[in-house]
Design brief:
By secondary structure, this protein is α+β, with helices and mostly antiparallel strands. The chain is 31% helix and 24% strand. The model has no long low-confidence stretch (mean pLDDT 94).
Length: 383
């Protein structure tokens, strides 16, 4: 099967899938095609028609929209009501060489979250419901527009981060939250990697409600505080006393710009030829992992999530460099975020699964997509 199918309704989508004789690559605007492995399919399932806003209830903190809705448009709409997607969706357009920040469907499918994840949770924690069509051509829904929804399996969490390999989504319900009135960032300079992680750990253990903790080598540790102005000022002073070290402070405008740069990996946008990896690790392990890699490969890096996330840029990747990175991460995972199609076809982009987990993943895939129609090979070879 080849060509492009552009369904305009859920019924038409179900008919296309039920009658399919070969696999599809599911896309919206295509801005997340560089994430994961290149899809092994000749046909394309274009979901851009599913871009309608079904409902937005600011008073109820609920948003329901089609997966094809532009993230930038949704952001502008909810910001006008003083609200936000609290998991801080990143914009990897510059990092990946894409035209724009993409769609809600791409964001949810890849489970992308920014620096506020350590306080607000991941994208999957804010997806309350979904509708879609399975690989059998059957329409299904899960979740609802209520927070206390406990009926059935938590399929919204399962679909979030599945990279379009389980179903073609037609509707997504998201929880939105109020935007903070203001923010400031406490800046600590003159620290090495170990000292930086220690300071971030102290900050996260404090009662100061830090909503972002990052370290950029050669610059500083950045600790973000958000809320109403008197609370931010009080917590800033309390944090300074607890850390017992001289601080600098970024006011709201400069703070927002710094956290956008951290969120969007702006440090690595200049050289598209150099691969970028995301390492999810135990924060206390981060300095040792970086030290090990720096002895073997020329790299640039920074820490987010208080050291629990290492962003690292390395020379053009091959099997040997990937093995070095994965070998250094004893506990956690290493995901290849930016690389050429050729490299992403050759390497395992995601952390290889243990046998038991791989078997479970295969059973889940078969349950939703028995004929392997959706995005074959996107996450793992042959899956």
């Amino acid at each position: 099967m080849s060509g492009i199918a552009r369904p305009t309704s859920e019924t038409e989508l179900a008919e296309i899938i039920a009658s399919a004789t070969g696999p599809f690559e599911i896309i919206g605007t295509g801005t997340k095609r560089g994430l994961g492995r290149p899809v092994q399919a000749a046909a394309t399932l274009d979901m851009t028609a599913f871009s309608n806003l079904a409902i937005y209830e600011p008073e109820e903190l609920i948003l329901e929209t089609g997966p094809g809705a532009r993230l930038a448009d949704i952001g502008t709409m909810i910001e006008a009501k003083g609200q936000q997607l609290a998991f801080e969706p990143p914009d990897y357009s510059k990092l990946l060489g894409a035209a724009h920040s993409g769609t809600i469907g791409g964001l949810v499918s890849c489970n992308l979250s920014g620096p506020r994840r350590l306080k607000a949770g991941a994208a999957r924690d804010h997806v309350m419901g979904i509708r879609g069509v399975s690989g059998r051509g059957e329409v299904f829904k899960a979740g609802a527009r209520v927070v206390k929804n406990v009926t059935g399996y938590d399929l919204p969490k399962l679909m979030t981060g599945s990279y379009g390999t389980l179903a073609a989504l037609t509707s997504i319900i998201l929880k939105v939250l109020p935007r903070p009135e203001t923010e400031e960032t406490v800046v600590l300079t003159g620290l090495d990697d170990m000292q930086a992680v220690h300071m971030m750990s102290l900050a996260m253990q404090s009662s100061c409600e830090v909503s972002g903790a990052a370290y950029v080598p050669g610059e500083a540790v950045y600790l973000r505080l958000e809320g109403i102005a008197p609370s931010v000022a009080y917590r800033r002073d309390a944090l300074a006393r607890q850390l017992a070290t001289p601080i600098q402070v970024l006011a709201a405008k400069s703070s927002m710009a710094k956290w956008r740069a951290i969120r969007d990996c702006e440090m690595f946008v200049g050289n598209q030829e150099r691969p970028v990896w995301k390492l999810s690790v135990t924060p206390s392990d981060a300095p040792g992992i970086v030290a090990t890699l720096r002895m073997q490969v020329d790299c640039r890096y920074y820490f987010d999530w208080a050291g629990g996330l290492i962003w690292i840029e390395v020379p053009p990747a091959d099997d040997a460099s990937a093995a070095l990175i994965r070998g250094a991460v004893k506990t956690g995972s290493a995901t290849l975020i930016r690389a050429s199609d050729a490299v992403r076809t050759t390497l395992e982009v995601f952390q290889p699964q243990e046998a038991a987990l791989a078997a479970l993943s295969a059973r889940v895939k078969t349950s939703f997509d028995p004929n392997h129609l959706f995005n074959p090979g996107r996450m793992y070879r042959g899956v």
